[in-house]
From TrEMBL:
Annotated InterPro entries: Cro/C1-type_HTH, DUF5753, Lambda_DNA-bd_dom_sf
Protein name: XRE family transcriptional regulator
Pfam families: DUF5753 (PF19054), HTH_31 (PF13560)
Superkingdom per UniProt: Bacteria
Residue ranges of every copy of the HTH cro/C1-type domain listed in the record: 18-73
Length: 285
């Protein structure tokens, strides 16, 4: 697959265009579903990019929307073809959060709040292994290794020499206090966190316990932004059995405002490094 083709992003862009064509036609998703003898949920999944789109789907939808310009149809058909190709993560087999990985791979910047753990993109391998093993006690070693390898591959975006991912992480103090693995794993992880925070495109802030209640009290979330103006920002909320993706402008704005409050309440960059180093020393005793 060409490196510049991201199937997840292609599906998302294609879905947005199909939604635009439907709205221009003045039709509801239910009306389109009735015309094509499919479920309304299928139309919704095609439009939000959560389902693979076939060229036949595109052809049928363009027929319903009476798209007469063959150049538009051909372009959408090509996007459907590209969207069915496999990203690098498919080489690792079934990954439960593959949609998110596809978005992260194409993102320009990522803002994440983590209340329980060090963010995946900033984890050491030993920390990741201990964390995943603890979170999935019934998973076989091969599954643990696969997930760790995927996580390591994702980190290439942060450490890329050109066009690295712009990462801003606000981490709750509890993530630093929670011992994952043994003391040496925690020392190495916290030292790595400080080291990564010195990269010009990485910002790390800690939200200490003493700040009390705050806008992120309900849990982890991430905001992904993309270089192409046609790709709207996405709020990602990880779940146990399913994940939530919010793309409506009002939802993204609400979470963005929450994130600004978190950044304002957290320690600044220098204070954060000093704070993390102090906690790292506590693991030596």
């Amino acid at each position: 697959m060409p490196s510049n083709v991201n199937p997840t992003v292609r599906r998302r862009r294609l879905g947005q265009e199909l939604r635009r064509l439907r709205e221009l036609k003045g039709m509801t998703a239910e009306e389109v579903a009735e015309r094509l003898l499919v479920s309304q949920s299928k139309i919704s999944r095609l439009e939000n990019g959560r389902r693979s789109i076939s060229q036949r789907d595109v052809r049928d939808l363009c027929g319903v929307y009476e798209v007469e310009d063959h150049r538009i149809v051909d372009s959408l058909m090509q996007m459907a073809k590209d969207s069915r190709q496999q990203g690098w993560w498919h080489a690792f087999g079934d990954i439960p959060y593959s949609v998110y990985i596809g978005l992260e791979t194409d993102a320009e910047s990522l803002r994440v709040y983590e209340p329980q753990m060090v963010p995946g993109l900033l984890q050491t391998r030993a920390y990741a292994e201990a964390l995943i093993s603890g979170a999935l006690p019934e998973a076989p070693p091969s599954d643990i290794e696969k997930r760790v390898n995927v996580r390591s591959r994702r980190q290439d975006r942060v450490n890329a020499p050109e066009n690295p991912l712009r990462l801003w992480a606000v981490i709750d103090e509890s993530a630093l206090r929670r011992r994952v693995g043994d003391n040496q794993i925690m020392i190495d992880q916290l030292e790595h966190l400080v080291e990564q925070s010195h990269l010009p495109h990485v910002t790390v802030q800690v939200l200490p316990f003493e700040m009390g209640a705050h806008p992120g009290i309900n849990g982890q979330y991430a905001i992904l932004e993309f270089p192409d103006a046609a790709d709207s920002s996405v709020v990602y909320i990880e779940g146990v059995t399913s994940d939530l993706y919010l793309e409506k402008a009002n939802d993204v704005q609400r979470y963005s405002v929450m994130y600004e409050h978190l950044r304002a309440q957290a320690l600044n960059v220098d204070q954060t490094r000093e704070f993390i180093s102090k906690i790292a020393k506590s693991y030596t005793s």
